[in-house]
């Protein structure tokens, strides 16, 4: 008889909600009852509202979900047949049938929550490294063409076509090229990269290896933000195993191709996520934005041609190689192909990760998946795409999540973070916050951002106090114009998005004193 299994997540979000204590209580209960059950730690399914989630294999090998299960619930659950996957008020049936999960299109996150993140065998048993094997039978140009044809665009915010970036690096003649994964994930309300790194680290490693072999880069760096110690630990373990088993090193899978990968921990500032400051930081300097041109693809890390991609962009690559570009292109709308891990955060009842093809509307994510606000009050404003994203009022909730449709309404998809606020939010204070954030995080290299954000905070202070409102609003608009057009990078250039959208959609909030 095979041993049945219990699964509890060790993802940071689950741990924050008490998964460690739940796992301990389950271990004790298993020992006390003498049943033949093995407890496995996995990544999260992304249903944060159900964490700590416990999955129990039933007699047919199906994974039955119970959640949220806190340590105090364990004795009662066990008494009512948890180990036999019996019905209970906390039971949600088969994980695969939970609507939140069943209605997703899980490509990059297909294995997250399913496999043991530390096990290369588990990864390989779930289609892992098939993309790399296919890449090793093709030329670099063919691999790059496959990525171009897939329509994949960078998931880090700028939505630049990934294959075109790779082609630029491939076409450079240089003795050394690099691949860098930008896993700084600094946007508010985003956690997809973290969940991927903690739940399926080999997928990211495979994506980077394919990139390296395609463009002729022999070295890569994973730049992970310092706030992600669990992801750093998981990745370090996975890198070690991949090296030991010949998936990294001087002779990747016996192909004769070299690819070595190292991890670096970020320097703790939002600007470290901007690609050129990230390269400065990797080179050991203060993260300050570089002038462009030259592009990193031509002169990047240590002056060498460099592919720099977001982790979610890289995680899409193994499947594109394994299943083909046509399969991937089939998901999505217009020029936004494939899927995106949308991240539901803020005042929402069912927060978590929803991987869905582009084209899903904001309203579908907020209400069908998210279940509306946690407070039960109407959702009034939503910020999509991080702290530099525009605020959207309810009248725009039917906008499809698609790069072009969002640009048309002055918003951006960014990293896919969605942060909801109910009708108690004060949008003038949120505009103030955006400028304060920019003033604090500015790298200081250019005047419009360094000075403009500070003058903007001062103008907003006066508006909030009700001083010379018309004159101060005019000054704020003029500052935003200067920042938008005169800033060297997106931090200064996009801070006007949240400020001006708050003013445009919620003018009443700027019209009274506090
Ligand atoms: C202020 C600022 C912060 C950024 N932070 C991130 C980040 O945390 N992660 C990321 O992938 N891209 C970030 N970007 C975008 C990167 O500069 C770059 O476009 C991206 O890493 C390219 O990868 P992709 O083509 O795969 O999206 C940021 C950009 C700006 C202007
Ligand atoms: S916009 Fe701000 S963060 Fe960007 S280069 Fe200028 S000062 Fe630095």
Topology at a glance:
Layout lengths: L3 E6 L2 H5 L2 H15 L3 E6 L11 E4 L5 E4 L7 H6 L11 E4 L4 H4 L17 H6 L4 H7 L3 H11 L11 H10 L6 E6 L8 H8 L1 H15 L3 E6 L4 H16 L15 E6 L9 H8 L23 E5 H13 L1 H5 L2 E2 L2 E2 L1 E8 L5 E6 L4 H8 L9 E6 L6 E3 L9 H6 L8 E6 L4 H15 L5 H19 L3 H18 L3 H5 L1 H10 L9
Parallel strand pairs: 1-2, 6-7, 6-9, 7-8, 12-16
Antiparallel strand pairs: 1-3, 3-4, 4-5, 10-11, 12-13, 14-15, 14-16
Helix pairs in contact: 6-10, 6-13, 7-8, 7-10, 9-10, 9-11, 10-13, 17-18, 17-21, 18-19
Description:
With about 525 residues, the chain is of the alpha/beta class. It is about 40% helix and about 15% strand. It has helices at about 10-15, 20-35, 75-80, 100, 120-125, 130-135, 140-150, 160-170, 190-200, 200-215, 230-245, 275-280, 310-325, 325-330, 360-370, 405-410, 425-440, 445-465, 470-485, 490-495, 495-505; strands at about 5-10, 35-40, 55, 65, 90-95, 180-185, 220-225, 260-265, 305-310, 330-335, 335, 340-345, 350-355, 380-385, 390-395, 415-420. The strands form four sheets. Strands 2-1-3-4-5 form a five-stranded mixed sheet, with helices on one face. It has a five-stranded mixed sheet with strand order 13-12-16-14-15. Strands 8-7-6-9 form a four-stranded parallel sheet, with helices on both faces. Helix 9 (about 190-200) crosses helix 11 (about 230-245), helix 10 packs across helix 13 and helix 17 runs antiparallel to helix 21. It is globular. The termini are far apart. It binds flavin mononucleotide and iron/sulfur cluster. Iron/sulfur cluster (SF4) binds near residues 289, 442, 444, 449 and 491.
């Amino acid at each position: 008889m095979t041993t049945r299994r219990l699964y509890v997540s060790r993802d940071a979000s689950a741990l924050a909600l008490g998964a460690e204590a739940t796992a301990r209580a389950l271990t004790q209960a298993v020992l006390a009852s003498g049943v033949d059950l093995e407890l496995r730690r996995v990544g999260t399914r992304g249903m944060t509202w159900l964490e700590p989630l416990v999955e129990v294999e039933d007699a047919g090998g199906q994974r039955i979900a119970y959640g949220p299960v806190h340590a105090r619930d364990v004795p009662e659950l066990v008494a009512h047949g948890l180990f036999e996957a019996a019905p209970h008020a906390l039971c949600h049936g088969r994980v695969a049938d939970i609507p939140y999960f069943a209605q997703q299109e899980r490509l990059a996150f297909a294995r997250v929550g399913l496999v043991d993140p530390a096990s290369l065998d588990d990864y390989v048993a779930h289609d892992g490294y098939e993309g790399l094997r296919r890449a090793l039978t093709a030329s670099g140009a063919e691999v790059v063409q496959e990525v171009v044809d897939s329509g994949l665009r960078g998931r880090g915010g700028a939505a630049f076509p990934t294959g075109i970036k790779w082609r630029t690096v491939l076409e450079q003649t240089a003795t050394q090229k690099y691949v860098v994964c930008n896993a700084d994930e600094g946007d508010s309300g985003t956690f997809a990269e973290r969940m991927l790194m903690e739940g399926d680290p080999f997928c990211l490693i495979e994506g980077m290896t394919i990139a390296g072999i395609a463009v002729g880069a022999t070295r890569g760096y994973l730049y992970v933000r310092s706030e992600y110690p669990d992801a750093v630990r998981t990745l370090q373990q996975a890198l070690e195993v991949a090296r030991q088993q010949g998936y990294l090193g001087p002779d990747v899978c016996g192909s004769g191709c070299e690819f070595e990968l190292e991890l670096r921990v970020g320097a703790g500032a939002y600007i470290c996520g901007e690609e050129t400051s990230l390269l400065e930081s990797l080179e050991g300097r203060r993260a300050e934005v570089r002038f462009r041109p030259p592009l990193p693809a031509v002169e990047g890390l240590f002056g060498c041609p460099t592919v720099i991609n977001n982790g979610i962009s890289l995680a899409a690559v193994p499947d594109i190689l394994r299943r083909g570009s046509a399969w991937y292109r089939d998901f999505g709308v217009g020029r936004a192909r494939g899927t995106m891990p949308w991240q539901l955060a803020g005042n929402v009842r069912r927060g978590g990760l929803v991987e869905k093809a582009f084209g899903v509307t904001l309203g579908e994510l907020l209400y069908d998946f998210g279940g509306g606000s946690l407070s039960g009050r109407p959702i009034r404003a939503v910020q999509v795409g991080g702290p530099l994203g525009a605020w959207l009022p309810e009248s725009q909730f039917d906008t499809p999540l698609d790069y072009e449709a969002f640009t048309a309404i002055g918003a951006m998809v960014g990293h896919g973070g969605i942060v909801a606020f109910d009708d108690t939010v004060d949008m003038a204070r949120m505009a103030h916050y955006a400028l304060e954030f920019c003033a604090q995080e500015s790298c200081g290299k250019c005047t419009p951002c360094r000075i403009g954000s500070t003058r903007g905070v001062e103008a907003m202070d006066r508006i909030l106090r009700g001083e010379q409102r018309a004159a101060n609003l005019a000054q704020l608009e003029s500052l935003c114009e200067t920042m938008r057009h005169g800033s060297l990078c997106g931090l200064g250039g996009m801070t006007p998005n949240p400020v001006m959208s708050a003013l445009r959609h919620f003018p009443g909030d700027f019209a009274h004193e506090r």
